[in-house]
Amino acid sequence: MKVLIVKTSSMGDVIHTFPAVEDACRARPDIAFDWCVEEAFAGIVALHPAIGTIHTVAIRRWRKALFDTNTWHEAAELRRALRACRYDLVIDAQGLLKSALVARQARAPIAGFDRSSAREPSATLFYDITYAVPRDLHAIERTRRLFGLALGYRPDLSTLGSGIVAPVGAVAPIDGKIAFLLHGTSREDKKWPAEDWIGTARLLVERGMTPVTTWSNEREKAVAEAIAKAVPSTVVVPKSPLADIAAILGRSTLVIGADTGLTHLASGFGLPTVAVFLATEPGLTGPRGPYASTLLAAPGDHVMPEQVVAEAERLLELSRTTAGKG
After folding, report:
1. Is the separation of the CB atoms in 308 and 256 below 8 Å?
2. CATH topology agreement for domains 2-151 and 177-325
3. What pLDDT digit, counting tens, does each position of 201-229 carry?
């Protein structure tokens, strides 16, 4: 049986889908999975060894050049590629109108959330089979339940694993115990102040760890350089391909991050991960993993570096204890 997964974005949403793939691989070894995803996240999907062909869509880019000939050519090529694969089933795990339209291009039966469950009820007009999944569940559990209903098995929700494997990057190796500090995020109100990152880096150095950070734009570069200036043992990784950053992330001892996709990736790798949420609620979309934890700033309150490092030490001890039992 050939199944196409449609989950185009964002990075966190893509990562939240991996546990469902793991369930399905165990319960239905007869299924071969392909995936359709935004071009920026194709490298993330490739981290799961069970995914075969990765089709890329460029909705974000196409919207900016809707009347460009190349846009229509690329969309037509995607449609041809999807139909040539002759899928037995498409699972739209996103539940949006845009994802439903992409799923429709495969010309195969589409399974998805029902009207009461989908993020955009209009998407269900394009589905052949719909399933009710409570909306008050974490995104990971919702997707696991959807896959189980669509493919005929009951997922074991008492366990959680992503199955993803960190890539081997081209960047130079970093010695010591790495504490990756993911300070960059898309919105200003999600950003923890630079002085708090500096305070955290200092506390980590005192505990024998090497702070590592990186950047993707000039504002983030300024923060990364400020951390390194205040804490000279900090390693600043230059702006790099996602695969290289993922490679460093995958061999880190500890990850501390803002509400950003790479923080979800760290938890997906099963690393001790502390997420600092300032302006968003982690309840239904926060990082999940065996050693993942979220510190949420209460209204008018502030998350302190000491709190973050204390939580990090708790997770590190938990991971050591668990490894010892294994």
Report:
1. yes
2. yes
3. 999 999 999 999 999 999 999 999 999 99
